[in-house]
Amino acid sequence: MRIARLACFALLFMAAPAAPAGAETAATRGTVTAFVDVNVLPMDAERVLPHRTVLVRDGRIDAVGEALAVPPGAHVVDGGGRAWLTPGLSDMHTHANSAEEMKVYLANGVTSVLHMGEASNAFMGQVRPAIHEGRRPGPHVYAAFVVDGSPRYGHFAVTNADEARWIVRLAKRNGYEFIKVYNDLSPEAFAALIEEGRAQGLPVVGHGVTRVGLRRQLDAGQLMVAHLEEFLYAFFVDPGQDPGDAAPDVQRIPAAIELLGRDRAFVTADLATYAAIARQWGKPEVVAGFLRQPEVRYLAPERRLEWAGSGYAGRRGSLDARLDFLRRFAKALADAGVPLLAGTDAPTIPGVASGFSLHEDLRALEQAGLGRYRALATATRTPGEFIHRAMPDAERFGTITPGQRADLLLLDANPLDDLDALRKPLGVMANGHWYTRKDLQGLLDEIAKRYESASPAH
Ligand SMILES: [Zn+2]
């Protein structure tokens, strides 16, 4: 049954002109794509609009309706009433830096990412512009410039307020949209980043800053906290405490929620990432297992070496109590209406592969008690709201609504029945291009072939 249905779609899609797999594609100005007889999950509310037509013009959603006329010359993608159209997915925490990694995101249905630091010059200067201009396949990329107060993690150290202001202007001139704060900043530098960031339109996001404290950071206007576990150290455990010593105190959850509600801040709910860290904590054999996973075929050789050298594998104790706590914490935040963003920190954390990890995160959030709709919102509607808060003039995305960027996934099952439906889309629309499942598989195959000779022996 399932196979017959897929074969039917394959025929339909061969008829539609599509971007050639793996090729640099020209921008598609003036083109109209019509998704006909599709079941739409607009993600503005928990609902499915059956048998709709969605028109896309110049890469934007033009109209959604029941009996819309299809303009002559449009590419028609006919869902035959058995395909589901959702907004493209977002991963709001990546460190991926290559054109190949961007293709892997797209193949996984990810149409927006937030680059959270150490973007290479080539990535910012060549790869990202080429994607945004429709010349290369990949997600839309928003980028944060990392600012820290010490060279401890290999970052440039900002020591005073003047330097901090200069860094914000430098980041803006070089196309960054956010400032990402790191642990070792001084209170003076942090305050100057917030102030200059506000003046320049670059909101501050990122970690807890030890000498400022998350409470004061959020009250000062930090827009987003980049990891759930930042709250552990700010509210629930002594930073110096061994992870196995004592379970975090759930009684303090309401205080954290109160603070987040007061400041309307977003939180990146990287549950799958923390779970991957917890799994490999003290267990080199788990890291060896990560390197045998099928998605490692798409991981560059230098990334495989990073994974193989996992510092977590040599640690002692267990993170399991903290992981359990973070699951409860994520659910409590969602119940209280705190806006959660899916984000995975790929691919620098061993076991967390670009693109694939987003599906793990959605699954982890579902299982933490959010359910499928609220989990899916963390990768669609809420990232769209986050970018809109940060950049009110930027193109909107995240729901299927006329006027929004046409970041779209076509699926062969309803993800509100099973989130796994998102893993292998029938097609993805991004930057005005329509990529069929075959195109997307072609992108992956090409990458796997390139990296083949670099596979470690097992
Ligand atoms: Zn990160």
Count of discrete alpha- or pi-helical segments spanning 4 or more residues: 15
CATH architecture of the largest domain: Alpha-Beta Barrel
The largest pleated sheet is described as:
8 strands, mixed
Any idea what the radius of gyration is? 22 Å
Structure, described:
This protein is an alpha/beta fold. It folds into two domains: 2-86 and 406-439, Urease, subunit C, domain 1, CATH 2.30.40; 89-390, Alpha-Beta Barrel (TIM Barrel). The protein has helices spanning 2-15, 99-107, 121-132, 161-173, 187-200, 214-220, 230-236, 253-263, 271-280, 284-290, 301-308, 320-335, 356-377, 381-390, 437-451; strands spanning 32-40, 49-57, 60-65, 75-78, 84-87, 89-94, 110-115, 140-147, 178-181, 204-206, 224-225, 266-269, 340-342, 408-411, 427-430, 433-436. The strands form two sheets. Strands 1, 2, 3, 4, 5, 14, 15 and 16 form an eight-stranded mixed beta sheet that branches. An eight-stranded parallel beta sheet has the order 6-7-8-9-10-11-12-13, with helices on both faces. α4 runs parallel beside α5 (187-200) and α9 runs antiparallel to α12 (320-335). Mean pLDDT is 91; it is low at 1-27. Zinc ion binds at residues 93, 95, 116, 345.
Q: What are the defining features of this structure?
A:
single chain, about 450 residues, alpha/beta, Urease, subunit C, domain 1, TIM Barrel, 2 domains, eight-stranded mixed β-sheet, 15 helices, about 15% strand, binds zinc ion
